[in-house]
Amino acid sequence: MRKVPIVLIFLLILITGCMNAQEDNITVNVIGNPDANEILSLDSDANIFMFRDLIYKTGIDWVDELVLTPNEEIGEIKNQTSIAEDFVNGTSNVLPVGTKIYSSKEQKDILLVEIDGAILKYYALVEG
User: Fold this and answer.
1) Tens-of-pLDDT digits for all 128 residues of the chain?
2) Alpha carbon 107 to chain centroid distance?
3) For the purposes of burial, counting CB atoms within 10 Å of the CB of 88, is it exposed (0-12), middle (13-18) or buried (19 or more)?
């Protein structure tokens, strides 16, 4: 008869201990669009700019193969920096200040920039 309460107490302690251990091992994954810091830490030579709170990157093979037509001017590069933490809308790490940004007639997730007569295609880097 005395063994039943002792066994119950032991089980309660064991269950409580396991519950606390599980709570301590919870991992939270934050999902969101990549920022300049993340992109530049993965590829320090990446050619990127930030526009409308998204990072756009050029030099992506499948994007470069697309035939795209510039549509309308939608913005321009206002800042240039290699410091990822200083990126705000209109900032690039390579493009010079004053570079015009154009939408593409064919793709909404690709923006176009003309530099020295060449059209560069920048793809919006978004999560999932």
Assistant:
1) 556 566 666 666 766 665 544 445 565 556 789 999 999 999 999 999 999 999 999 999 999 999 999 999 999 999 999 999 999 999 999 999 999 999 999 999 999 999 999 999 999 999 86
2) 19
3) exposed
Q: Residues 90, 92, 97, 99: is their CA dihedral positive or negative?
A: negative
Token output for 118: 């060449």
C-alpha to C-alpha distance for 122 and 113, rounded to whole angstroms: 8
Q: Which residue(s) pair with 50 in the sheet?
A: 55, 91
Please count the other Cβ atoms lying within 10 Å of the Cβ belonging to residue 100: 15
